[in-house]
Amino acid sequence: MVKLEWVLVKKNLWSLESRLERSREMGDDGVKKEAMEILGMFQVLPRLVVFDLDYTLWPFYCECRSKQQMPYLYPHGKGILYALKDKGVNIAIASRSPTPDTANTFLDKLELSSIFVAKEIFSSWTHKTEHFQKINRTGVPYKEMLFFDDEDRNIEAVSKMGVTSILVDDGVNLGALRQGLAEFAQNSASGKKNKEKRLPDSSKSDELQ
Ligand SMILES: [Mg+2]
Description:
- By secondary structure, this protein is an alpha/beta fold.
- Helices cover about 55% and strands about 10% of the residues.
- The chain has helices spanning about 1-40, 75-85, 100-110, 130-135, 150-160, 175-209; strands at about 50, 90-95, 120, 145-150, 165.
- The protein has a five-stranded parallel beta sheet, with helices on both faces.
- Helix 1 packs parallel to helix 2 and helix 1 (about 1-40) crosses helix 6.
- It starts with a helix and ends with a helix.
- This is Magnesium-dependent phosphatase 1.
């Protein structure tokens, strides 16, 4: 039993290493190209994709770092952000970081500040529902948003608002992007079906009036 578990651990480590190796080989342009292909596979795309920062876009808590340090993203981060931008999908940030100053400095250093249509970075007791209420004021309905985060309590709270929400395990990557877009397409198709199902009832009540 122990041996089997060890084999599985080794297998997982091997797949993680080969994934990281492949990301390094691909570079930002390679990842962007692959992300563009993934985006091209879906007829329905979200209008806005929202990302958490710590352990979703970058592999650290920015509150534990000094502003003087040079930040870096997960290997697929930049390619995915630029592919979404090129495809005309807006992107935003929802972070509960207690050090928005450091977070914003890091985004500046990575030359990413101007790429986001909204940056909601503030500490809050709510599990990001407050962040999404603010983002919602940009005019995009919750059901047209896709959200990536590494904490399941945020995923749970935000998905209840109607946002397709994806839990990332080790930062956002091409696999998570594909999964997110597939779930978004599925949710928007079932939303449409429900609307169609409701239609006969509402037309009936119109007739009665
Ligand atoms: Mg996080």
